[in-house]
Amino acid sequence: MALLEFQNVSKSYDNVTKALSDITFSIEKGEFVSIIGPSGAGKSTLLRCINRLVDASEGTIIFDGHDVRQAGKAEMRQMRAKIGMIFQQFNLFASRTVYDNVAFPLKGSNLTKEQKDKKVCDLLKLVELEEKASAYPSQLSGGQKQRVAIARALANDPEIILSDESTSALDPRTTRAILDLLKKVNRELGITIVVITHEMKVIQEICNRVAIISEGKIAEMGSVQEIFR
Ligand code: ADP
C-alpha cells in the first residue's frame, strides 16, 4: 500500500480560484519526491492538503491507511504527529532555546524526562547543532535555523517530511547542505520526503521522482531520468 495517495483531489478557494484540479498520484514509503512548477501552480496547496492546513474541496487523500478528509480530531492529531513540516520562514519559537524548540513536539508524549532528553540530544547531533542547544533562534544563521526546524520535525518519528520551499531564503551552499541533510534523513531513517523546490541540480542528484504541477494539474510525474530526458 502506498504511504500517500491522492485520488481526484480538487481545491477551490472561495469557490472561485481553482488551485487544484483532479489530482491523482501516490507516493511509496521511502521515496524522495520533488514538486516543481511555476508560482501559483498549486504546489503549496497540494502539500498543505496532506496535513489539512488546507482542506481539499473534493476527492480522497489517504495517508498511512487513514482517510485524511474524513478523520476526526483525535485521528487527525495522531496523523499530524506522523507528518513533519518545514517552511521557508522556519517557524521557530523565538523565545525558546534550540533545545526547547526541538523538545516542543514531545510535550504530550509518553516518554520519560530522560528519554526526551536523549531524543533531543540525538536529534541535535543528527543535524550537527549539539553546541547550539542553549542558543536562541536569533543567534543562528538561516541554515542553522532550518536545521533546528528539521530536528523539531523529526521529534515525533514522522513517516513523512513535507518541505515547503524550505531553502528559498538560503544561499546556494547552505541550500545544498540542507537538501543533503534531508537526503540523509531519507536514507538513514527511511523517512519519506516531499519537497517543493526550484533547485534543479539538486533535484537531479537527490530525488527519486519529480512531479511537475501546472495550473492546478499534474503536467508530468516520473523518475528524474524520465522528466529530464
Ligand atoms: P504555488 O505554491 O505553486 O505558488 P499556491 O498553492 O500557493 O501555488 O496557490 C495556488 C493558487 O491558489 C494561486 O492562484 C493562489 O493565488 C491561490 N491561493 C493560495 N492560497 C490561497 C488562499 N488562502 N486564499 C485564496 N487563494 C489562494
Descriptive account of the structure:
The chain has 229 residues and is of the alpha/beta class. It contains eight helices and ten strands. The strands form two sheets. Strands 6-7-8-3-9-10 form a six-stranded mixed beta sheet, sandwiched between helices. A four-stranded antiparallel beta sheet has the order 2-1-4-5, covered by helices on one side. α4 (113-126) crosses α5 and α5 packs parallel to α6 (172-189). The two termini are 29 Å apart. The structure holds adenosine-5'-diphosphate.
Elements, N to C (H/E):
EEEHEEHEHHHEHEHEEH
Provide the gyration radius in Å: 17 Å
Strand content: 25-35%
Low-confidence stretches: none
Major beta-sheet overview: 6 strands, mixed
Number of E-state strands: 10
Mass-distribution shape = globular
Q: Give the helix/strand class.
A: alpha/beta
Helical region count? 8
Q: Helical amount among residues, as a percent range?
A: 25-40%
Strand order, biggest sheet? 6-7-8-3-9-10
What is the mean pLDDT? 94
